[in-house]
Amino acid sequence: MDLITQGFLGAALAQSAARPAETRLATGIGFAAGLLADADALIYSSADSLLTIEYHRHFTHSIVFIPFGALIAALLLWPFFRHRLGFKRLYVFSLLGYSLSGFIDACTSYGTYLLWPLFDERFAFHIISIVDPIFTLALIIGVVLAWRRRSRLPARLGLVVAARYLGVAVLQLQRAESAIESLAATRGHVPARLIAKPTFGNILVWRSVYEHEGYFYIDAVRVGQQPRLFEGSMIKQYRPARDSNGLARDSVLYRDIMRFKKFSDNYIALHPQYENVLADVRYSIEPDGVLPLWGIEMDFGQPQQHARFRVYRNLTRQRRERFLAMLMDAEVLSNKPVRMIE
């Protein structure tokens, strides 16, 4: 999730165990500890741009790392709180603040290494966007009321509301997947795999990608009272052994392609507009669009040079208005067909 949500989740968890006199101290400690897990984003290499995306939401988000992350947070905060709070209570609040950082990020589609080092893979539950105002607002209200009233009850209520919102998001995910499976059946497809992920800031409009016979089919569905489907596009799956122009497998570039393949869970295809750009098709500005949000530039003429990670944020007014129309269930201006799922 975004840093604001991470901080307020940590603050609410710390407040939920605080005594009245500790509530405001717990707020700051929990907020700071909730942010610490994302310090892995600072891992950076100017030569290897894939290093940052590989290690973001990595070991610092693991369940195994929680006690150590909390200890680091407590040690960093100790000089500021040692005259007002014992180290044991400081550690408890740090532990609570840090405890769900990995889990809440795993609820997004980006995922985390939640069980590292036991399992060296990302876990992504695909139930909430990286930014979701409703989820965040529930936490903010709870934290602010708890801070003002010096009471842990509002924080606990805020956590309950946020948890129930995640429960609704799970149901929405299931409905989205069911709608896409129905669409695939009408095409005569049996998806080899399928993902549905919430679009930015909501759990109403979902982007879906499924694989069938070497192609990815990209669609969107608005999961309201009656699901409304927006049929998108198809794009050919990229296979490194077949599509890498005879690139040596021991070259730096080929290894980078395989690293990006792992990061993208093999949802990769060539960018439809830019030559030699390998894209992660799970993400796009448009819910049903094929233009990717990010990818890597491959220079096959320099196989011993690292690929360059690139971000493509071409959010035009037309695309923004079309997304809002999908979200509000208004008429969508598009040449693409729209189906109602019975």
Q: Keyphrases for this structure?
A:
single chain; 342 residues; alpha+beta; 5-stranded antiparallel sheet; 4-stranded antiparallel sheet; 11 helices; disordered C terminus
Descriptive notes:
By secondary structure, the chain is of the alpha+beta class. The chain has eleven helices and nine strands. A five-stranded antiparallel beta sheet has the order 1-2-3-4-9, with helices on one face. It has a four-stranded antiparallel beta sheet with strand order 5-6-7-8, with helices on one face. Strand 5 (268-270) and strand 6 form a beta hairpin. The longest helix is centred in the middle third of the chain and has 34 residues, at 153-186. The two termini are 33 Å apart.
Q: Give start-end ranges of low-pLDDT stretches.
A: 338-342
Number of discrete helical segments? 11
Give the overall form. Answer: globular
Structural class: alpha+beta
Strand order of the largest sheet: 1-2-3-4-9
Terminal-residue CA separation: 33 Å
Number of strands: 9
Mean pLDDT: 94
SSE arrangement, N to C: HHHHHHHHEEEEHHEEEEHE
| Rg, Å, rounded | 22 Å
Main β-sheet description: 5 strands, antiparallel
